[in-house]
Amino acid sequence: MKTHTRHLVLAVLVATAASTASIVIAQQPAAPAQPMSFFVTSAGKGAGANLGGLTGADAHCQSLAAAAGRGAATWHAYLSTQGTGAVHARDRIGNGPWFNQRGQRVAQNVAELHGDTIEQARIGNALGKQLSLTEKGTVVNGVGDTPNQHDILTGSQPDGRAFTDAADHTCGNWASGAAGTAQLGHSDKQGGGNGSWNSAHASRGCSQENLVSTGGAGLLYCFAVN
């Protein structure tokens, strides 16, 4: 009888301790969501790939971020330029980590973003239709949607660096809305047999009409650099 009583008391104590622990855990505040440090622009500038150069592209990112309540950070467009003084997109976006509008991590650092090592390339980054969100938290139309707008201006090779050949991959370093072509990435990582987020194919030209014709809208990737 005494043994049974001891077992009963022990069981009650264990249950009470477990219940108390559950209450304590439940009362602990959830970790705050990470502030947005990456987004796809919800709209282009409307002049095709003529962005006003890197300065104009960065200003577009900054303006949209400010409207979304993140204007305190410094924002850069993910774009490369060519020729003398060429700029590599990967070198102008900070060090990471980067989080989308919902606080979901899209990449830890520059190397993970671009798959610099064999293992990182095998795993890939987290970008894709469900995580490559706009500054408003909306999903960008992709393959299967009407209209498809997954083409993102980058002017970059898969490793995030500028092209070194003589061809135009940046619409005159983002100052032409007519002649030239721009290298594009796919925000949903789908379509055309190439799922590259930053270097899927070239545009048909630099005008707004040319960008729309291949499934784009002159959209950009924007990263907080601080």
What does this molecule look like?
- The chain has 226 residues and is of the alpha+beta class.
- The chain folds into two domains: 1-30; 38-224, Mannose-Binding Protein A, subunit A (Mannose-Binding Protein A, Chain A).
- Helix content is 27%, strand content 13%.
- It has six helices and eight strands; from the N terminus they run αβαβββααβαββαβ.
- It has helices at residues 2-27, 53-67, 110-114, 118-123, 171-174, 208-213, and strands at 38-40, 75-77, 98-99, 105-107, 151-153, 183-186, 201-202, 216-224.
- The relative contact order is 0.20.
Observed structural traits:
single chain, 226 residues, alpha+beta, Mannose-Binding Protein A, Chain A, 2 domains, two-stranded antiparallel ribbon, 6 helices, 8 strands, 27% helix, 13% strand, disordered N terminus
